[in-house]
Structures are given as structure tokens and as C-alpha cells.
Amino acid sequence: MRKLLPLFFAVASIAFGYSCAKEGCTDPEALNYDAKAERDDEGCRYGDRFEDQKESLMRNHVALAYALYSDALFQATNLQTTITSFVSDPSDDGLSESKLAWRNAYYAYLQCEALRFSSGPVDDERELSRMLGTWPINPALIDYTNAATGGLISDSSSLPNVNSESLLMANESVNNKQTTIGFHAIEFLLWGMDDEDVFLLTSGNRTHLDYDEADTSVLNKDRRAAYLKGCSELLVTHLGLIRNDWDSLGSKNYRKDFLDLNVNIGLKNILTGIGTLTKSELADRALRKPVANGSQDFEISNFSDNSITDVIAMANSIEIFYRGTYTPLTSLDIKGKSIEDLITEANPDLANQVDKKLIECLEMVNGIPAPFDWQASQEAEFGAGPIANAATALNELEGLLKEVAREFDIGIETDLP
Question: pLDDT averaged over the chain?
Fold first, then answer.
């Protein structure tokens, strides 16, 4: 009997120790994995371990969208005010101030560019993106180019009254539905045609006299002024519509619909927007196409020679929506859960690759010499240079973004229709 006592106490000790062991889920792949658990309680739960992070990412995404479009609306409103002042009393200083206001407004708008191509309000059936930022446009449909008259400004039969309502109705009604309003219509009316000789390193040479009633040598000054003013009013109206679609105070708007989406659909939409901007819109269309066509007509802002600043703003948009942070003009800093955070947790090595490539892309885009049309002409004649190299880096970044999507079992399509 005495010999059995040690065995009894040993068994009892093991049993007691086992009963006191911390229970929990011991499977690292489970949602509720407990690294401190010593004994599995058979309560492991499986599913999307990133669901909460994806929901947080979507909430930060709508905050970014609202802040960015608020800034775009703010700058567009300033542009409208500046243009209204200029056309009421045309001067060289007033024209310069209007040009600066245009540059600021278009930069703010292009930083929203990653919100396109992602089933959002800017690309819905209203086609607001086409009415805001279509490029290239055909300037001859709007005003004179080589002759003394031309376009809708000279055509009082097609456009009897010139105001925002009539311009909206006339838009895309002529010559195979080409856009005659938006940022680049305003750009043309402020700068005029750029010289075809890129070695002059000049932008368009329109002067304030095109709007000055005292100069009788220029035709259609009043209609030109009304056209410019009407376009700026439409810009504010259309950006206001998009901004309101992302407003947290809206009870029935796109923001609410977006947050109601399945988290994987929401993530897919965000990545599709960023990826399409990276490859198809920025690398292929904004950078490669002007070089391939050998014409300044295919650059983004060919009247003002603002295209370098344009592509920088588009590259910034990629970074803003990947890193999930933005410093607005009109509110406090936005910083929340991001795609960068998500992929860093899921696959740190891939996150590091994306980070390095994104930094490289930003540096290369910022390093393209100005003016863009001159640099494009050099690469068209002599071969790849800063423009082509930046485009290649952006294509590589798009490939990494597709890998990010695959990490979460999502496929994205980044080609433009």
C-alpha cells in the first residue's frame, strides 16, 4: 500500500496540473488563436482574420475621399471667384491670378484621381469625371485656334445664350460627343494655344485683351467671358455633387452604400482604383502615349504646360490612398487603417517591396524635366529617358499591387475599357 502512495500522488499531480493549464485556441491559423494557451479548448474559430482591419480601412477611405474632394471644391470655388473678378475687369494681373487659381484647383482635383476606376460616384451614370477632367479636348470646338473666330463661342446659332445651363446642354453635342467644358476648357480659355515648336519652351500666349471690351480688334469678347465664367460655375457644381456623395452627414449617399459593402468588395474597389491609376491612366496614358504619338496634343495640360505638376499630383494620389494619410487644406489630418497597414501584417516582405517601389516611383515622376512636351519630344527622337523610366517603375508598382490583392484572395483588373 505504501508503494502505491507515490504513484497516486504523481497521477494526482499530473491531473491537477492538466486541469490548471490555460485553455484556449492553439491553432495559429484561427481567428481567436491564443499564444498563451497550453491546452486546446476545441473552440477555434476560422474565417477572415482581417475583417475588422478591412472595415477600419473602409472607414478611413471614406474620410480621405471626403477631405480630398472638399479641398478640390474649395480650390474650384476660389477659381470661380477669381475668374468672375477677372472677366468683370480684365487685366494682365487678373489673368495671371486666374491661371494660378486654375493650377491650384486642378492639382487638388488630380489628387482625387485614385477614387476613379473604382465604381464610385465620379464615374457613375452622371459621367462627372468626363465633364470635369476629360483630356485631351479639341479646342477648335470652343474658340478660335488659328483663325480669328471659331467654335461655340463664335456660333451664336448653335449656342444663342452662353451660361452654365446652355454650356451643359451643348457639352458633347457636337463632333462625336467631345467634351467642351471642364478643367481643360477653362485652361484653353486662359492660356490659348501652345506653340507647336517645343524648343521655344513656352505655354499658350492668350492675353487679357481677349476679354477686354476696350479692344475692338478682338471678336466675341463678351461670349468668351460668359463661356469662361459658365465653365467655372459648372466645375463648382459638379465637384459639390461628388463631395456630397462622400459626406458623413448624408443619409442616402454613396458613402453609406460603400460602407455597407462586403469588406472584400470594398477592398477590391479601392485596389482597383489605385492599380488602374498606376498603370493605365498614369504610366500608359499620361506618360507613354504623348511620347509614342510624338505630339503635345496628347499631354494632359498642353495649353499651360502644366503636365509635370499634373503627373506629380496623380502619383501623390496613389500614395495617399495606399498609405491612408492626407493633410487637408480645410480640416484636420486624416490618418487611419490603410492598405499599407493591412499588407504589412499579412506579408511584411511584400509590404517592404511595395514601399520601396512606391518611393522610387514618386522620385522618378518628380524627376521628369519640364516642360513635359519638350522632354517627350526628346524621348520620341532619341529613346527612353525619365518619362519612359517612370512609366516602367509605375508598371512594376502595379504588378506589386496585384500581388497585394492576391494576398487577400482578390483579383483586380487595371486596364481601361
Answer: 91
- Alpha-carbon distance 209 to 207, whole Å? 5
Angle in degrees, CA 400, 404, 407, rounded to 5 = 135
Q: In percent, how much of the chain has pLDDT > 90?
A: 78
- Give this prediction's pTM: 0.89
What does the chain come to in residues? 417
DSSP 8-state symbol, 194: P
Phi-psi region of 58 (alpha: psi -120 to 50; beta: other; left: phi over 0): alpha
Reduce the secondary structure of 348-404 to three states and give it as a string: HHHHHHHHHHHHHHHHHHHCCCCCHHHHHHHHHHHCCCHHHHHHHHHHHHHHHHHHH
Name residue, grid cell 510624338: 294
Q: Report the DSSP beta bridge partners of residue 24.
A: 40
H runs (alpha helix) in 134-248: 151-154, 164-170, 183-191, 221-245
User: What is the three-class DSSP state of 47?
Assistant: coil
400, β-bridge pairs = none
At 5, which amino acid appears?
L
Q: Which residue type is seen at 303? A: F
Q: What share of the chain is helix, strand, coil (3-state, %, to 5)?
A: 60, 0, 35
Going by C-alpha positions, the residue among 389, 102, 24, 84 that lies closest to residue 397 is 389
Rounded CA separation 111/69 (Å): 9
* 293 three-state secondary structure: helix
CA-based torsion, 8, 10, 14, 17: positive or negative: positive
Q: How far is 373 from 377, CA to CA, in rounded Å?
A: 6
182, amino acid identity: G
